[in-house]
From TrEMBL:
This is Tetratricopeptide repeat protein. PANTHER family: TPR DOMAIN-CONTAINING PROTEIN, WW DOMAIN-CONTAINING PROTEIN. Residues 1-23 form the signal peptide. TPR repeats lie at residues 41-74, 440-473. It comes from Halalkalibaculum roseum. Keywords: Signal, TPR repeat.
Length: 489
C-alpha cells in the first residue's frame, strides 16, 4: 500500500511539474483566474487566457482547444475559445465561428448555462451570449450595438465581482471596444480608469499593461503609457504582439530607436513562432511596416529599403490581400519619406480597384510623377484613385493631387485654397494609431508648398501643427528647420 501511494504521489508530482513546465514554456505574464476546470487542463487554459490578453488569438484558440480536449466539460475553456473570435480594438468579429464553439458546449443559452458549475462562470458565459446576440436585448442587433450592450454587461459583471482582475481587465477592453469611430479620448480614459486598479495590484498582468497602452496611444497621453510600454515587453516576451505594442507609445513620442528595436524583436518572435508552426513568415505585415517607418524616421533609408525589398519579393509571388495593403503603404513611406521619387518605377505591382492598398499605391505613383514633372502620369493615377470607393481618405489624397496639379498649371491660389481645405478634412480624422496611412500628411504637404512659395512663416506653422499629430516626424522637422532658416535671411 505504501509502495502504491508512493508511486501515485510520484505521478502526481510529475504531472504537476509537467503542467508547470508547460505553463512556463511561454512567458506571457502572470494572472489568477479562478475556475472549476480539471487540474490537468489548467496550464493550457491559463496559457489561452494570457494569449488572449496579448491579442495572439490563434495561439489562444489552440490553447483553449487543448484544455477542453483534456476536460470536455470545462465550460470556461469554451468561453475562452469563443472569445478568440472577437477582436475589440480591431473592430473585428466572427460571430459564426464563435457560435460553433459555444454550440459544442450546448445548443442553447439555457443548456450552456447548465454546464457552468459556478455562478461566476455562468455570469462570464452570459456576457458572451450578449456579445454574440443570443439574448433578448442583443438578438438581431448590429455588431456595434452588441458591443455597447456587451460593455454594459461587463460593467455589471465588474460591479458584481469588483476584485476579480480578469473581469476588470476584460471590462476595460470592452470599453475600448466601443470606440467605433476611431480614437476617442473620453472612451479611452474611461477604460484606463478601470484598468489602473489591475495594473497597480499586478504589474505582471499582460492585459492591464496592454490595454493601458491602447488607452494612452496618442501624442497627448503617451507619456502616461511609458511605464507600461517599458514593462510590457518583459511581461510577455513570448508574445510578438506584446513586443510590438510597446512601440505604439514610442511612436507617439517620436522615440525612433525604441520603435525600431521593439519591432525587430516582434518580427523575430513572430518569425520563430511561424517557423515552429510551419507557417509562412510575415515579411509584408504589421511589424515590418512599423520597423521600416522607424528606420525612415531615423534617416536609415538603406535599412528601410531592405525591409521593403523583402516585402516586394513576396508580392511577386501569390500575395494575400493583407500583404498587398502593407506593400502599398510601405512603398508609399519609402518613396515619400526618403523623397526617392524614382522609386515609383522600382517598386511596382499590379493593383486595380479591388486590390487592398490600391489607394496608397496610386496616390504614391501620382505624387512621384508630379515631383518628376510627369503630369500625364499623375493624372492617370488620379483617375484611378477617383474610381475607388468613396472614403474620407480617398477624397483627401485625391484632393492633394488635384491641388498640386492646379499649382502646376499656374493656378497657385486656387491650388492653395484646395490644399487648405484638404488639411481641414484630414484634421477631422482621428490621429493614426501608427505610421500615417495617408503617407504624405496634408499639413506637411502644405508646409512644403508654402516653403516653395517663400511663405516661410505659414510654412513653419504648418510643420508645427503636423508635429503635434506626428511628433518628431523627420520631414516635418527638416521642413520646419529650413523654413525658419529662410525666414531669418
Amino acid at each position: 500500500m505504501n509502495s502504491y501511494l508512493s508511486t501515485a504521489l510520484s505521478l502526481i508530482i510529475i504531472l504537476f511539474l509537467s503542467a508547470d513546465v508547460h505553463a512556463q514554456e511561454k512567458q506571457l505574464g502572470k494572472i489568477d483566474f479562478l475556475n472549476s476546470g480539471a487540474t490537468e487542463a489548467q496550464a493550457d487554459f491559463m496559457e489561452g487566457v494570457k494569449f488572449l490578453h496579448n491579442f495572439e488569438y490563434s495561439d489562444a484558440a489552440r490553447a483553449f482547444k487543448r484544455a477542453r480536449e483534456i476536460d470536455p466539460d470545462f465550460a470556461m475553456a469554451y468561453y475562452g475559445e469563443a472569445k478568440t473570435h472577437n477582436h475589440p480594438i480591431w473592430m473585428q468579429q466572427d460571430r459564426e465561428a464563435a457560435m460553433q464553439v459555444l454550440k459544442e458546449l450546448g445548443g442553447s443559452v439555457a443548456e450552456r448555462q447548465s454546464k457552468a458549475p459556478t455562478q461566476r462562470e455562468k455570469d462570464y458565459l452570459m456576457t458572451l451570449e450578449v456579445l454574440y446576440g443570443n439574448t433578448p436585448q442583443s438578438e438581431g442587433k448590429s455588431k456595434e450595438e452588441r458591443d455597447d450592450l456587451y460593455r454594459q454587461a461587463m460593467k455589471e459583471l465588474h460591479e458584481k465581482y469588483p476584485n476579480d482582475h480578469e473581469v476588470t481587465a476584460f471590462y476595460g477592453l470592452s470599453i475600448l471596444g466601443t470606440a467605433h469611430e476611431g480614437r476617442d479620448y473620453k472612451t479611452y480614459m474611461q477604460a484606463a480608469a478601470q484598468l489602473f486598479k489591475v495594473w497597480n495590484e499586478n504589474q505582471q498582468h499582460p492585459g492591464a499593461a496592454h490595454y493601458l497602452i491602447h488607452s494612452f496611444d496618442d501624442p497627448i497621453h503617451a507619456p502616461l503609457g511609458l511605464p507600461m510600454a517599458r514593462a510590457y515587453s518583459k511581461i510577455a516576451p513570448a508574445a510578438a504582439h506584446a513586443q510590438h505594442m510597446t512601440s505604439h507609445i514610442f511612436l507617439a513620442l517620436g522615440m525612433w530607436d525604441d520603435v525600431v528595436d521593439a519591432n525587430i524583436v516582434a518580427r523575430n518572435v513572430q518569425t520563430d513562432r511561424q517557423k515552429e508552426l510551419n507557417e509562412q513568415t510575415s515579411v509584408c505585415g504589421h511589424y515590418p511596416w512599423w520597423l521600416q517607418y522607424g528606420y525612415l524616421q531615423e534617416g536609415a533609408t538603406d535599412k528601410a529599403k531592405q525591409v521593403l525589398n523583402t516585402c516586394s519579393e513576396r508580392i511577386a509571388e501569390d500575395a494575400s490581400s493583407g500583404e498587398m495593403w502593407h506593400f502599398a503603404v510601405m512603398r508609399g513611406h519609402q518613396i515619400v519619406d526618403s523623397e526617392n521619387w524614382s522609386g515609383a518605377d522600382t517598386w511596382t505591382a499590379k493593383y486595380d480597384t479591388d486590390t487592398q492598398g490600391s489607394l496608397n499605391y496610386f496616390y504614391t505613383s501620382a505624387l512621384a510623377a508630379l515631383m518628376r514633372d510627369k503630369e500625364s502620369t499623375a493624372r492617370e493615377n488620379l483617375n484611378k484613385i477617383l474610381k475607388l470607393p468613396q472614403s474620407a481618405e480617398r477624397d483627401i489624397q485625391a484632393d492633394q493631387i488635384k491641388s498640386l496639379l492646379l499649382i502646376e498649371e499656374g493656378n497657385p491660389q486656387e491650388g492653395l485654397k484646395l490644399l487648405r481645405e484638404t488639411v481641414a478634412a484630414e484634421l477631422e480624422l482621428p490621429v493614426d494609431f501608427g505610421p500615417p496611412t495617408i503617407v504624405k500628411p496634408s499639413l506637411e504637404l502644405l508646409g512644403d508648398v508654402l516653403l516653395e512659395m517663400e511663405n516661410y512663416g505659414e510654412a513653419v506653422e504648418a510643420y508645427e501643427r503636423q508635429l503635434e499629430r506626428t511628433p518628431k516626424r523627420r520631414l516635418s522637422l527638416l521642413g520646419k528647420e529650413k523654413a525658419m532658416g529662410m525666414a531669418t535671411r
